[in-house]
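Input record, target 12 of the design panel.
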């Protein structure tokens, strides 16, 4: 006797031409599994990012061994193309035993570098007033006797105007910046040389390639004062350019679809077909601005 099946049981699967069809529940479970894997992949990508070594450690170690002295590190770049300008946050660092403040070594993972042991005034682009100041007597100690690195006491910001005569159309626009910095110390503002200028190379939207150049200037008395110049070339990352070009191609592809829908609509008198083509054209018009806004750090729809 064949037992009666439960009223809510799934119907049995029958083979068709020797092939048993896959039940719909399998595709549903596969979709859930893919979604879970995707969600778990996202945090895995960022796992350990904060453990990456400082990009300045090798630079600082090299300066400490070959040219000890004062180092200025551009730890943050704020590039504003609308102005166009760039703001650099500089950190004042010293490398070499004769320049490092006792108890402050270990900055950016370099045991040979720390905070300067002399007061400093930093002048940017010929300013008469110092853009940044540093006083080692203001650096506090922690409970173990080590110096604390207080950002507001060892960092300063400088604003610069970008040279745009070499700029091209987005996303292949490039910009250039040249700046000069000099340092003084003591009550007489005695000039002191800067051993190194360096900045981060990658921001969220741009790649900055920097080069520092030793230079000097002459004061009113005809005395040469040491300074250090920096040349910065700013461009879009290759990844951003590729994404922009793909979105640009997709926009034109959808535009051609919309134009084709108009041509097909003119050649038919079927109301249902015309309605479908109208929906396609309307959806295309809605999607085009969204694709435009998806381009990384793109100018506004007004071109600015």
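The sequence produced for target 12 reads:
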């Amino acid at each position: 006797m064949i037992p009666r099946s439960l009223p809510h049981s799934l119907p049995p699967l029958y083979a068709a031409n020797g092939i048993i069809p896959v039940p719909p529940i399998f595709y549903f479970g596969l979709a859930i599994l893919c979604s879970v894997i995707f969600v778990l992949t996202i945090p895995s990508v960022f796992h350990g990012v904060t453990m990456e070594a400082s990009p300045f450690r090798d630079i600082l170690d090299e300066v400490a061994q070959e040219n000890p002295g004062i180092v200025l590190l551009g730890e943050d770049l704020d590039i504003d193309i609308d102005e166009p300008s760039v703001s650099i946050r500089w950190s004042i660092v010293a490398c070499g035993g004769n320049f490092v403040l006792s108890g402050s070594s270990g900055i950016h993972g370099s045991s040979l570098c720390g905070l300067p042991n002399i007061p400093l005034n930093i002048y940017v682009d010929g300013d008469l007033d110092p853009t940044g100041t540093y006083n080692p007597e203001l650096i506090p100690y922690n409970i173990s006797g080590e110096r604390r690195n207080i950002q507001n006491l060892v960092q300063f910001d400088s604003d610069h105007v970008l040279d745009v005569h070499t700029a091209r159309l987005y996303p292949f626009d490039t910009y250039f910046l040249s700046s000069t910095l000099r340092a003084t110390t003591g009550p007489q503002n005695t000039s002191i040389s800067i051993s190194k200028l360096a900045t981060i190379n990658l921001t969220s939207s741009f790649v900055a390639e920097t080069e520092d150049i030793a230079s000097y200037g002459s004061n009113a008395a005809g005395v040469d004062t040491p300074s250090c110049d920096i040349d910065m070339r700013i461009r879009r990352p290759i990844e951003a350019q590729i994404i922009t070009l793909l979105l640009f191609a997709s926009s034109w592809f959808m535009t051609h679809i919309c134009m084709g829908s108009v041509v097909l609509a003119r050649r038919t008198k079927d109301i249902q077909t015309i309605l479908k083509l109208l929906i396609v054209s309307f959806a295309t018009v809605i999607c085009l601005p969204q694709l435009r806004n998806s381009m990384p750090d793109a100018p506004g729809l007004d071109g600015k």
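The chain has two domains: 55-236, 239-294.
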